[in-house]
Structure formats: structure tokens, C-alpha cells
Fold these 3 entries.
Entry 1:
Amino acid sequence: MKVLYCTSEAAPFAATGGLAEVAGSLPQALRLRLIGCRVVLPLYEDIPQELRSTMKFVTSLSVPVAWRRQYCGVFEAHSGNVIYYLIDNQYYFKRHGLYGHYDDAERFAFFSRAVIEMLPYLDFKPDIIHCNDWQTALVPVYFSQFYANTDWFQGIKTILTIHNIQYQGKYGKEIVGDVLGFPESAMPVLEYGNCVNLLKGGIECANRVTTVSPSYAQEILDPWFAYGLEAILQERSWKISGILNGIDVTVYDPETDGDIYADYTAEDLSGKGKNKLELQKRLNLTQNAEAPLIGMVTRMVAQKGLDLVKESLDSLLQETDAQFVILGSGDWDYESFFKELQGRWPGRVSACFGYIPELSHKIYAAADLFLMPSKSEPCGLAQMIALRYGAIPVVRETGGLRDSIQDSGDGEGNGFTFLDYSADRMQEALLRALKGFRDKDGWQILIRRAMGCDFSWGRSANEYIRLYRDLIKNG
């Protein structure tokens, strides 16, 4: 079985978020299970020179972009045991930043068309093209419109994975012919809500649609979560399924992690206490092993439940001796709030801004509790990483958080959960967790149970393999 994994970002080459981690890990897990998986992504200007120097030129071709044709270079690179193809066009990709450009529709239309056009030039004909999010959602549309019935491409199937339905690729209808290169007859496929919606087109045309957790696959059928796409998703619900993401357990391993202050295992947790004291020292928190440390590593946006944190954190700090540290960046009002909070609670609160991987590892290793009160969370990786480091998650029951974290109130769970999107309910869950923290023997048992959870990519890869096989067999 051969799979081409089509993505707009992939670690270690280019990354802005969770998609890059998935695209850097899932193909590796598939290869370990003898699936012929290769990855294709754009050759961005931001890809580091040390990675560029390892690439070799494969071929060049001319790719149609509406009424014109554009140069496309194909380069090959290797990471782990996976072959990566990088699509070169300096007009579209020789600029800083992966997204947010005025011509993103054209840039990713070119990329999507190039993914298909390059295939006959390679020694690799996939059984499945697996696409991800709106940036590659045009691949199934182009394929169904122009390629599916031609001799070389017959038999290839397409899958589209939705990582976050909030981002859909919406544009004016005038781009259909002049930018995307579709005939007028294709307008019903792409049009939705009086605009062109690239994600909607991919949902229409892909043979299967997946999301990154089983709960999210059900939630996006509800208007509360679907961001306007509920009608098309309900019509196509027969082709939708959810597979929970995994994490790279080699990168996130407290026994071997070079980014943390002291290594530790579930059998010997002494290093976790050392990590806490060292992080407290670095972040100017009061060094106190007995003070419970609550951590967050997150984008500072409304979706992550930060309104609940703003509403309740002051009272929690007043009622308890807890400390709080947050790392991330995002909306100005959230960043300003946490700066102010740090000023009002010296020694108790630390706010760190930016994308700082080594510091995120140190927070996972040091934290006693890890807070994720998300309004919606398609999958979430942070709660799985937190479990790996023995930082007990406190989460709202939504999306992948519901699928990965079970409340420990029954003595068998791996965290603390709450259902209603409410500051009061979040605070109740935190207070239950802080009470549990005071029971030292019970807390040690909970940490070991958390660290024993398996969220490696192996489980998820096996589910994808079953999906691939079913699609090839049954169409």
C-alpha cells in the first residue's frame, strides 16, 4: 500500500502548529508498519539552510494555474525513514511566513495542482492521497474534476483530514475561473454561503473525511462547532470518521529529554521535583516544592478557554497557595491580561510569550497540573504530552480532550474534567485537583497512572491503516 501525505507544513521542515507535528510523526509510524508513505509540502523560504542542503533535485515541470502555467521544481529530502517531496516555486514560496499572504488561494491552488501533476514524473504511484486542512483541500477537487478518469490516475483514492474546521479557506466567487482554473460547472462544488469555500469543496470531493478525534467527528455535525459547515457535513456524515492523534514519544520522554533540568521515570519521580524547583528559580517564582504548580502551554486565543481563566484565576490564587505559569502568544488582550496578572502576583504567576520549545518541555516536566479549559479542541496534543511528563491535566470535556482524559474521581482516571463551559465549573475541577495534590500517596499513584497512558502514534497509525485498506477495498 502506498500513501502520499499532502500537507502545508511538516516537522522538521516548516511548522506553525499541531499539523506539522502530525505530518512529521504519522508518516514515520506508517513506515514502521510497512506502509509506503511519502510526504509532500511546499519548499518555503523559511525552511532552514541546513535542511535545504540535504535536498536533491528530482525533476521540473510546468503546472497549470487557471489560464497560465507556472514552473514547479520537485526536490527530495529524507527525515527519519520517510521520503519528503518539496514543491519549489519562488514566486509563491520565496517569502517569509507560511500563511497570511494576500494570494494564499492562488499559492495553495498551485501547490494542490502540482501535487497531482508531479506524480507521473516520480517512481511512486500512491493508492491514496491523504490531504490535510483547507490548504490542500483542492487536491480532491482537482483530482475529481480533471484526473480521476484518466488512465494513469485511475484507482487513486483521496482522504481529507480536518484538523480545525474554524479555518476553511473562504474567498470571493470571482477566483473560481481566473485563479483556481475551474469551469463554471464546478461552482456548485466550491460555492457555500455565497462565497468559495475550499474546505467545503474538499469535503464534497474526497472519498473519505476524517477528523483528529472521534468526539470532534461528531461535534462538527452541530452548528455550535461547525462554523457554518454543518449542513454539508450532515449530508456527508457517512464518509466522516475520527481518529485520535498521537504524540512523538521519543521527543517527549522525561527519561531522555535533554531540554529538562533532570530526567525521571514513573518508577523514580525524584527528578520531577528538581524540575519544579529549577523552573521556579528561572521564572522568579517562589521556590517551594509544596506549592502546586499549574501550567499552560497554549495559543492565547478565545478557543483555548482563556476567558474562563481571566474570570477565575484571581480568586483561585486568593483561596489557595497555587502557582501559575503560562507560555504562548496570540491575542493582545490575553497577553496584556497575563502580563498584568504577573505584576499583581509576584512570585506566584509567570507569563512567558512566544514559541519556545525548550521552555515548554520544562513546564511539562515541572507542572503538577496542566490546564486546558478549551471552548473547542479538535484533538489537542498538550494534554497527552502533559500525561507523559506526569503533569495531571485539568480539561473541559470537548473533542480530543474528552477522548483522552477521564476524570480520576472514580479512582481510575488520568486527570480532572468538567463539562459546562463555565468559570465556576473549571474552578471546581481545579479545586478537586488541588485537594488530590495534598494526598501525597494518592497523587503519586495518579502520576504513575498518567505516565503509563499510551498515546504513541502506533495506535493511531493502525487505525489509519484500517481506513486506507477499507477505502481501497470498498471505495
Entry 2:
Amino acid sequence: MILGSLTDLLKDPFEFKGMIENAGIPGVTAEVAIDDQSSVAGIRVHIKVDGIEEGSREESEHHDHHGLKDVISIIGGLNVSEMVKSDASQIYRIIAEAESNVHGKPVNEVHFHEVGALDAIADIVGVCMLVERLAPEQIVSSPLRTGFGTVKCAHGVLPVPAPATAYILQGMPVYAGDEEGEFTTPTGAAIVKHFAEKYGNMPLMKFNDVGYGLGSKSFRTANMVRAYLGDVEEMLPTVKEISCNIDDMTPEDIGGIIDLLMAAGALDAMLSQTMMKKSRPGYILTCICREADADDLATLMLAHTSSIGLRMHTCERYEMSSSFIKYRTDFGDIRIKVSEGYGLRKWKAEHEDLVKASITNGVTVDEVRKSIRFDPDEELGDD
């Protein structure tokens, strides 16, 4: 299905037949057919070895068994680019590591069954060739649906996801779904694990084409993989907003938490007065931070306040980039913070420097501020 969805993204899907047959996999031929699944048209790719297709009765009686060394040797001798050879070999190594873990054997003693057959090599090499041809800058995958129940394979009847699949899926977002059956195979999981740089819902993008790859099994859910090709819109940076309500701490005790949070890496922290339950006056403590710092700062909030629970939200944030310029005045050097972005430019003198200069020179902060004649267009250039 991955093979079909990527083939559907080619300007001429039938071009894939020549691509895979020219790769030189022994005995492999391909048929590219336009078919439908749940009344949706898509591409179904049929890979045949010596005229026999995967899943047929003849094929089930003649499995090829290969070790990793054999598979890598076959891939290394193909008429494909070094990038395709590298990608395909790495995908097989992911599968070999899973098989090794499941069967308790060293990787070099693992023998592939279904995934070692020449048609499976064609599947993996074909995907790698299509990724190279389409040349996406980034591949994003939705969470993978595993299904549930049991599946019959060369090793007998196994639970879904099969043990090798489950091993490969470690660290990847998955869900079972509501329909029995095997929705993710070791090969599919390994391909996604190798190529996907991110997981989640479709990013903000303008897509130019959609490819549909059709499966052979029938489920209530349409058995297909859909691939989008397009341009990702520039994403806004995100921050975490952590907050809690406090109505049982004195102002003296709660006052120091702001400094603690800022010193620990918060982007901002604030206290807002509010009226809480039982008509108690209280505070809302809010901390804004980068996602990587959220857990540490949440723990700090729990440790240094009486709160027993926090709220956490992910927020998009418009951010202007900032830099500092040292500006000479009659009262000494003052740092100027210049912020730019979205066609705007702002500047402001650092208040700490204003206060320090006023104390040093025996003048008011306002006098120091009025002595600044900073022109960002003159200092930085007019964009």
C-alpha cells in the first residue's frame, strides 16, 4: 500500500513498472493497475517473481529464505543509486534487529521468511526508489494503526501486532483501532520508522497531489494508504503554558516563585489576582516555557507552592527575534534590546541599565532615558 500510494504520486504511475524491473531483482516483474477500494480509485501494485504473485497458492508453497547478509548482497548488486541501496539496507537491518530480539538469535543468524522473499525486497527497494524520485524534504507520518487479534505467518499463529512488528513500533505512536486484523506489518513499520522524521496529524500545508495505495484485504475500514505531496506552511513556534490556582499561601511565601521559575528557564512567569471558591481571594500562577523545560518547571511549581494540580496547554506564539546593542550615552553605556519580525521593528532600553546609570550618576531614571537618541534604522540599516 505504501508502494501504491507513492506510485500514484508520479506524473505517470505506470512508469514504476520500468523502474522496478530495471533495478535487476532476479525474476521480478511488476504490474501497475488502477483499481478501487470502497469506491475510491487508487493504485494497486502487483509484484511477481517468476510470474508468481505474493499471496498466491503457488507462492505460499515456495517461500525464499534469506539471511541478512544474503539480502544486503542482493541489494548491493542492484542497478539503483547508492542512496536507494543504503535506505533499503537500513530498513532490512531494522527488521533483522526485530527478528533477532524476538527469536533470541544473533542478527547474522536471522533468516527472513516473508520479508526475505524477492517480492518483499522489490517492495522495499521500490519504496526507496520512489522516495528518491519524489525527493521530499521531510516525511511526516500519522500514528500507525496496528489492529488486534491474531495473524497466521511462517512462525504460526501470532498475536497482532506480530512480535517483530511490536518491537519495531517501539517509540512510534500507534493505536489498535476498532477492527480485528493485521493493519501494520513488520515491513511497513520498518519503512515508516526509517523514513518518517515526525509523527502526528497532517501539518499545515498546501498539498499539490494525493496518492492512494490499495491493499488486498477487505475490512470495514477502507484498506488503503494515502500520501500527500505538498509544501508546508511556515509553522509558528509553540510554547507550554502551565498554570495553577492558589488560595492558601501568604504573599510572602508566594512572592519568590516568580524568580525561581525565571532562573530555571521560564520565558515568562506571572501572578494574577482572582476570586476563588468559597469567595476566597487567591492567585493564578502562570508559567510560559519551551516544551523541553515544561516537566522541570511543572515539578518546580508543585514543589514550591501549595498547589496539588497544574493545567498545561500548548500554545502557538508569534515571536519577534531580539538582539542587544550597546549604546553610549552621557551617563554611560546602556543596552538596547531590538526586536524584529513580521515587518516590524521595536526597541527598548534595558531598565536595569537605566537604574544602574541613574544611581551611578545621581540622576533620575527618566533623565537617563531621555538622553538616549537611539535610531534603529540608522544603527541597523533601514530594511
Entry 3:
Amino acid sequence: MSLTPRVIALLGFGEAGSAIARGLCAEGGWRGTPRPGDNAPRRVIAIDTALDQDSRGVALGKEARRLDVAIEGRYTTALSDADLVISAVQGEHALAAAQSAAPLLKKGAHYLDLCTVTGRMSDEDRAPIEAAGGRYIDIAVMGGFFRQGIKAPMLVAGDDVEQVVAWMNASGFEAKVLGPRPGSASSVKMIRSVLIKGVEALGVEAYVTAERQGILKEVMGCMGDVDQISFGQFVGMLVQTHIVHAHRRWEEMGLVGQTLRETGVDPLMTEVIEKSHRRTVDANIAPSDGKVPSLDEALKILSEKVVRGR
């Protein structure tokens, strides 16, 4: 069965919500108000509690009117017209948005949660929606709305996920099915951020040091080995070889920290990495034969003997 919403409600009309509205209205022919002679027109409505509250609220109201999106500053019965609701508020407000929207939802309406939340927070958002008869869909936005607009890549998880993704892609989104378990898309994004935001922080530390030493171009040009394989495969290779080479790498990070200090850079990330590698050294897991295990074997060893907290 295909998904054919006639009314879409956007919760939040900031960068994400307005970008989605532009994609739907400017490119897809959606609009906010019925016109004479329209037969069941496709409409976009929006709710943003910041509407007209300050300069930002005034600006988002102007953008909504420019796109012919009917916008309100509170949750009203207008939400009950929506066949599909897209929540695009900040993660800290995701649960409040779900709780406010739930009593007003049309039975069977799809609720697409684009908020940046953890897997457990996604479960909390889902509870009031499903209790009210809505269909909760967990969506992780893997790109940026500022640069990519409605084309920001998304991972989608939940019941009816195939038909939701089919509708999204037909409507201008760039969506991919992740699976049937709500919360899994949010968890993927959070875990990905461990790597991406970690690399960002390391990049600040490394590139500032390189710039101060006058060797930034040379440092950036020595990444050829990394460029030979995908980033995911590269990280997997590091995890595998960590089992064998943690001691040598721990010693090296001590020298790396010294290098940064000599350049006047506080080795915040470097010291944490040195501590992490020392944890593995202390666990004494290096194989006597020096053989690198498979990724599955390496993760099992690290989970059971090094990374605690389970």
C-alpha cells in the first residue's frame, strides 16, 4: 500500500523545518492554504512555539508566509488534519513535541521524528505517539540542511518503513531504509558521531600544531594510505590491529603529546587517546603469535576484556 498524505505538518520551522518546506513547496507543488476550486489540495502546515517571540521568530514567520505555509505558534487542532507529521525540533525538545502533538494526531498518521536523539530517547518519543494511535518513524539525518536542503541524506527505521521511504524519495528527499526497529537510526547517527566529531576534534589539535610548525600542507598530503580504502574499512583495520599494536601506539602517543606541548598546543585529545591505549596495554590481550584477529574477533576481545561498563 502506498503512502499518499494530503496534509503535512512540520513541528519546528527552523533550519531543518524551513528547508523541508522549501523542498516540498517550492519544488513539489505543496502549499499552505487551499485555493478556490482545489479538490483536496496538498498542504503544508507548521507549528513553531518561537513564532513572533523574537527576531528569529519573526523571520521564520516571514519565511513560512513566503512559502505559503500556514504556521501557528502553538499546538492546535489544525494538527489533526495532518496525515503525516515531521518533527524537526532540537533534540532537547523532541519529547515535549511528541507529547504535545500526540493528543491531536489523526489516528494512523505517520510521525517522522528527525530530531537528533539517542536510541533510548527515540523510544521515549515513540511511546506517546503510538499510545495515541500514530505510526512512529525514526529518522537520522546524516547530512546538513543548510548546505543540502531536503536532499540531506537520511536513514529511516520503523514499521511501514518501505512505504515511508518510497514516499520520501518520490517527494524530493534522499532517504534509505535502515530496518524495522525504531531507535536504530538514531543510534547509528550517535555512534557515527563518535567517529566524525572525534576526527573533528583531532583535526583541530593536529592541524593547529601543523600550521604552527609550518608543515600543514605536508601533513595533509601524507594521508595517501588512508585514501586507499573507505573510511569505514580504515577504522575497522585500526580496531583489528589495535589488539596487536596497542603497546607501540601507546608509547607513540606519549611522544605525540610531547610534540604538541612543544608547539604550545594543549594535547587534550591526545592525552585521552594515550589513556585509552594504556587501558588496552594493561588488559594484556596482545596475542603471543602477533597474529591480527578478524574484526569480529577483535571486537569480542575488546568488549569482554578492555571496554568495561556492561
